[in-house]
User: Fold this.
Amino acid sequence: MNDSFFRKIESKTGVPMEEVFALANAIQFADFSDERQVRKIIRKVGKLAKKEVPQHTEDELVRSIIKDGKAVNIQDIQNMIGRQ
Assistant:
């Protein structure tokens, strides 16, 4: 992909592409049975979305992700953060 495409995304979202790529990489290689890693990813998504994640929401997300034992769906995290 070319730089102008990434610059357009950055200007619309306000999120540097380096941070998006770092998050994608972390998610790709994360152990979703490790509570510490799951919490770190949830906090990173909240930071990128510029939303404070209340402790009870973080706990709910962690329980859900660890219980299901599957990869993180960024949209689900964003939806839960947005409904505070």
User: Anything to note?
Assistant: Helices lie at 3-13, 17-28, 35-48, 55-68, 74-82.
